[in-house]
Amino acid sequence: MSDYKKAIDAVASLKAANGAPWEAINPEYAARMKVQNRFKTGLDIARYTAKIMRQDMAEYDADSSQYTQSLGCWHGFIGQQKLIAIKKHFGTTNKRYLYLSGWMIAALRSEFGPLPDQSMHEKTSVPALIEELYTFLRQADAREMGGLFRALDDAREAGDAAKEAELQDKIDNFQTHVVPIIADIDAGFGNEEATYLLAKKMIEAGACAIQIENQVSDEKQCGHQDGKVTVPHADFLAKIRAVRYAFLELGVDDGVIVARTDSLGAGLTKQIAVTNEPGDLGDLYNAFLDGDYVNSADDIANGDVVVKANGKLLKPKRLASGLFQFKKGSGEDRCVLDCITSLQNGADLLWIETEKPHVGQIGGMVSRIREVIPNAKLVYNNSPSFNWTLNFRQQVFDAWTEEGKDVSAYDRANLMSVEYDETDLAIEADRRIQSFQRDASREAGIFHHLITLPTYHTAALSTDNLAKEYFGEAGMLGYVAGVQRKEIRQGIACVKHQNMAGSDMGDDHKEYFSGDAALKASGKDNTMNQFG
C-alpha cells in the first residue's frame, strides 16, 4: 500500500473514532496535506539527507564517475528554482545538492549590509538560511504535488481510469526537492564550544553536512584572499569533535564533516603549537615555522620567542602584527598533513582550497594523502575566483610548449583576449573546462564539485542585461524579449508567479476548509490564465 493510501486510511480511522465533530473532515484532503509535507522538522531533513550523502559517498568509492555536484544559493527562492530546474531537465535530483556559502551570507544576508568574507556577519544568519532553503524546497514539493492532486480530481471527474492510474503512480513515487546541503560554518565563529552551539542550530535547521576550515576565527579570510592564518592541529581537531558531538546529540549519527584546509595559501599562524615530544602533531606544525636557528642566548633579542624544533633551537620570524610566518614553499606539505590528520580524527571529507583549478596539482596532493588514507576524497570549490578561461588557455599553452608544438601565434599573458576565441588553443581549453569535473573526479579524488557563489554572479549578470535593455531603446521589449518570452518558451514555471508563490495551494486549502463557500483566486479573471 502506498504512503498516500496509508495516510487516507489513517485519517479515516481517526475520523471514525472522533464521530460527529469530525464529520466535515475529508480523509483524502488531510492525507494530501500530510504527504505534501513529509518532513516535519529540520532534523527529519538532516537524517534523511545524511543517508543520501553516505550512499553517494559509497557509490563514488566504487566508481569515481559517480561524483556529486552543487551550486551555492543565497536565498530560499534561488535554491527552490535550482531544484525545480534540475527535476525538469533531468527527471531526478540524484547526486545534486545545495551549497550554503559563508561568503554569500556575508555579502548578501547580513544585517550590517554587504560584508567581506571574514566571519563578521551574524552567526545566526547561517542556520536561518538553511531553514529558509528547506522551507522553499518543501513548498516546491507541495506545489508540484498539489498540481498532481488537482489533475487526479479532473481525471476522476472525467472517468479516465488510465489517466487516474498514471497520476496515482506519480503521487506514490514522487521524488522530493529536498536534497543535502553542505553548509559553511567558516572557522566555527569562536572556540570549540561556540562551534558546537552553532553546529547544533545548523543541524536542527536541516544541515547533514558541515564544512569547517582551519583558519583562526577572528582572523578569518576568504580562501582566495591573502592574509590567511591557520591554527595548530589540536585546535582544529577539537572543533571537528565539537561538530561530531552536535550530530550525535541530535541523533544524526551519520552526519558528514568536511574538513577544509587553507594551508596551501596560508603563510601565517597566530600561535606556536603545544608539543610534548618530538614528532607529535605540535612538533610537526612548529617544524614548518620560518626562522633562524640560534646557538646561544646572545642570538636572542628582547621579546624574541624560541622554540625547539627539528632537534634545534629555532627563533621563529614574528611580524609586527604578532603573527608567525611559515617557510616559503611549505604549503603543500602542510596541506597534506592537515588532510591526513583531519581524516584520522573524525572528518569524512576534505576540502583543499587551491589557487587555480589544476587537476595535476590537486591529484598530486590527493595521491600523497591516499598513501595513508586510501579512500580519502574531496569536496572541491570550482571557484568563480578563478579566471577559468585564462587558466585553462595557459595550461594548454604550457602543455603544447612542452610537447614541442608551435605556439608562436599566441601571447600567453593575453590569452583571455576575444581574438583567440575561435583558435585551436581556445577550443582545446574549453574542452578541458567542460571535462574538468569528470577528469578531476577520476584523477584527483573529487567526490563533490561545487561553485560557491554562482547565483551571486547570475543575479548580477541578468540584472545588468535587463537594465541595459529596459532603460534603453528597447523599453518594455527589453523585458518581454529578454525575460518573459524566454520563460514561456523554456517552460519556466515562474512565469505563473502567482502559482509559484502558493496561490493555487491556498485555493485548495480554502476548498478543504470551506467547501463551496471558498473564495478562490484562480477563477476565470485571474490573468495568470494567459499563460496556459
Automatic annotation (TrEMBL):
One Pfam match: ICL
Cofactor(s) essential for the protein: Mg(2+)
An individual GO BP term: carboxylic acid metabolic process
Active-site residue list: 222 (proton acceptor)
GO MF annotation list: isocitrate lyase activity; metal ion binding
Binding site for Mg(2+): 184
Nucleotide-binding among keywords: no
Co-factor: note: Can also use Mn(2+) ion.
CDD domains tied to this protein: ICL_PEPM
Reaction(s) this enzyme catalyzes, per UniProt: D-threo-isocitrate = glyoxylate + succinate
Keywords: Lyase, Magnesium, Metal-binding
InterPro entries, A to Z: ICL/PEPM, Isocitrate_lyase, Pyrv/PenolPyrv_kinase-like_dom, Pyrv_kinase-like_dom_sf
Claim: Magnesium is one of the keywords in the record: yes
Record-linked NCBIfam families: PRK06498.1
PANTHER family xref list: BIFUNCTIONAL GLYOXYLATE CYCLE PROTEIN, ISOCITRATE LYASE/MALATE SYNTHASE
Name of the protein: Isocitrate lyase
Organism for this UniProt entry: Marinobacterium lacunae
